[in-house]
Amino acid sequence: MTGHVLPTHYGVTLPAWVLDEVGATRAGTDVERMALCCRLARRNVREGTGGPFAALVVDEASGRLVAAGVNLVLSSGLSSSHAEVVALGLAQTALGRWDLGANGARHTLYVNWRPCVQCYGAVLWSGVTRLVIAGDGPELEALTGFDEGPMPGDWSAEFATRGIRVESGVLRDEALAVFREYGALVEAGAVTVYNARGAGPVRRG
Length: 205
Known about the structure:
It is a single chain. With 205 residues, the protein is an alpha/beta fold. It is 39% helix and 12% strand. The protein has helices at residues 16-23, 30-47, 73-76, 83-95, 117-124, 139-144, 155-161, 172-187; strands at 54-59, 65-70, 107-111, 130-133, 165-168. A five-stranded mixed sheet has the order 2-1-3-4-5, sandwiched between helices. Helix 2 (30-47) packs parallel to helix 8. The longest helix is centred in the first third of the chain and has 18 residues, at 30-47. The chain is globular.
């Protein structure tokens, strides 16, 4: 095909406001880190960068924040740029390896809700050893209209068999408040629910 050039690269860039938000925050405990996720998720919607989701990767031994991510689907035009994928990719880039569990390293991924079906696979193969989430029920889809995909019922057990400990219920109410705010914007037509072809779950609340 004469004149047709195939693309050779793609990627995302973390918005500068994320670094500003993280730099001004003390986040040393699970609760503090989840609170940061909720703040990032809420601001991500306000900034128009993407959906109400954020993630952090923390080195368990030192407590150092290795990477932060927010959902960048809208700003990047890439359906795969969910918060977990962004945070894990940035952590792997920072450490120079695809396996975050290599050489005995232990990293925790914090997310303000259970991963969707895409991020389930991303977390599964990332090498993290712990996943901390705000919640894992149907409320997210009911409040926002997002289609999280056909997650297996034994998803957390599958993580456990691969050495990933799952802890749920950290700041659940705070996370749900962010989703309720987003849902109100959806009802008002102020934000885009970026399900493929506009399809999504039936709203339940």
